[in-house]
Amino acid sequence: MTMRMRAAAVLVLVAFLAGPASAQIFTDMTNSPYRRAAERLAAKGIVVRLPDGRLAPDEPVTRLDVALYLARTLGIAAGNVRLPDFKDMDQIPPADRSAVAAASILGTVSTTKAEVRKGQILYTLTTNKSVYGPDEQIELNFTITNDGPARPAEILSPDRGKSRIKLTGTEGIKAGTTGEIYVETRTPQGVKRETVARITILEVRPDAVVFQVEEEGTVQMKSGLKGFFLPDVIFDYPTTQFHDFIVRDAEGNEMARWSLNRPFIGLDRPVPLAANQSLKFATAWKQLDQNDQPVRPGRYELVATQMTKENPTILTIAFQRGMIGAYPDGTFRPKQQVTRADLAVFMVRAIGLETESLRRARDPLQAADARDIPADARGSVVVALDRKMMLSFPDNTFRPSRIADRGEAVFALNVLMETLGRYDFVTATLREVRGGPPPVVVVEDAQKQIRSLRVGVVSAIYRNDASVLLLQLRAGDQLKMLKPTDAGEITYIEATGR
Fold first, then answer.
1. Do residues 173 and 153 make contact, with C-beta atoms less than 8 angstroms apart?
2. How remote is the C-alpha of 142 from its chain's centroid?
3. Cβ proximity of 440 and 452 under 8 Å
4. DSSP letter string, 189-249
5. Average pLDDT, rounded, for the chain
6. Cα angle for residues 158, 162, 166 (degrees, 5° grid)
7. Which of 4, 216, 275, 315 gives the lowest tally of CB atoms within 10 Å of its CB?
């Protein structure tokens, strides 16, 4: 074989190995600041290439575009969603109607967990997930836990047959106080509490606290043992109703109440909550009003209340039903172009920060054209800029009435995906690259298991933040990979290596 033939053979081999995995997914994003965001989203099937391979980042984004993006980003299974009665439904492509319905009716919560601590009591309200279809139940769990902080305690030697402890601080401790002495040990899973004894305080002396053991624990009590003392808490309820769950709309109208039509009786004595114990209450809201009708798109408050006589504790999680609603005339207007102010509103709703946007509507806004931002979108713009979902222009203007383009939508969606934790990266160490076809990367995961993963013909590959071809990856590189489904091809790779 001549030198020229060898060189030609090498070039053919390189083309064969590198060709199937191109360096980028979109043909018009080489120098775009939105390129990485677009490729990540494409790898998860949220944005798709146009027939000619472009994303067209500078083209206007429509309400239909945003509805499709959000339905895919939030992972709503649109197949069984009831179609809203839009007057212009005929203008929405049949294949897209379920996704539009999902985006116009699906719900998100501001947080899956709200907490308030009052002294040694921790109040927690949780939902079972962050995104809900229109017919899904929202599971609410309200927990009241007596978990401290506790007072450091040391077991003293008995005095004339009476058990004693030394407490760091005796405020609020008196004869008759009940509680628990416990010790803490650290384990790989966290701090573990083990009970020494359940006790009743008999006398509070300047040098020690005298107590009586009511129930022995798993840890032996002995002089010199250091641990903690956590007193029981007493709650004063007017009736046997210890809690309530309420759903209110944005105007404060009550949509649903757990206690409605439930019987309760009066109480004439307080109710204790033992140390290191919890009261747990649960319900499920079906997104229906008091008349069992589906609630309309809008913002709602999911409220849990402890029904004490004085200073009841209230926790709230905001719920937004519908990201993109209909116009007052009942139309959806799928071809209507979306302004930057509109895009901020839609994205803030999708991320579950509608309540924060309302609270921050009067916050200072460092934009030269802040006065041009519509009042009903101002809070969303504040949040979108603060969370870096959208950016100001170099002249420090926001330009709320300017039509948003596909690149700006992609940028915001990427932040939404990151915030919601929906990028399910597969991490592994590269062992080798096989040219195929199809091209394959052989990797070793954290459990030392070897896997062969097919790489898509149209893929985005980076090594140390530089766009590369598949052949330019090296054995030992640490890989982060995305694929549309568990069984799909790898279509996005971020590699780091020497």
1. no
2. 18
3. yes
4. TEEEEEEEEEEEEEEE-SS-EEEEEEEE-SSPP-TT-EEEEEE-EEE--SBS--EEEEEEE
5. 90
6. 60
7. 4
- CA distances (Å), origin 65, targets 30, 199, 265, 410: 23, 64, 55, 11
Report how far residue 226's alpha carbon sits from residue 137's, in angstroms, rounded to the nearest whole number.
47
Read off the amino acid at residue 206: P
Alpha helices, H only, 401-484: 406-420
Q: What are phi and psi of 379, to 5 degrees?
A: -60, -40
* CA distances for 458 relative to 355, 406, 425, 438, 485, angstroms: 41, 20, 18, 12, 16
The CB density around residue 134, as the number of other CB atoms within 10 Å, is 21
Whole-number Å distance between alpha carbons of 287 and 412: 28
- What secondary structure letter does DSSP report for 402? S
Residue 149: asked if its preceding bond is cis (omega within 30°), the reply is yes
Q: What is the pTM of this model?
A: 0.70
Range in 184-188, 234-238, 434-438 with the lowest mean pLDDT: 434-438
State the amino acid at position 133 in one-letter form. G
What single string gives the DSSP state of each residue in 280-348?
Answer: EEEEEE-SB-TTS-BPPSEEEEEEEEE--SSS--EEEEEEEE-SS---TTS---TTPBPBHHHHHHHHH
The CA distance from 360 to 381, in Å, is 10
Q: What are the pLDDT digits (tens) for 158-182?
A: 998 999 999 998 999 999 999 999 9
CA 59 to CA 345: how far, in whole Å?
Answer: 20
Tell me how far apart the alpha carbons of residues 110 and 355 are, in angstroms, rounded to a whole number. Answer: 7
Burial 102-129 (b: 16+ CB within 10 A, else e): bbbbbbbbbbeebeeeeebbbbbbbbee
Q: What is the pLDDT of residue 12?
A: 36
Helices (DSSP H) in 338-471: which residue ranges? 340-350, 354-359, 375-386, 406-420
Structure tokens, 271: 């109710």
- H helical segments located in 387-480: 406-420
DSSP annotation of 431 reads E
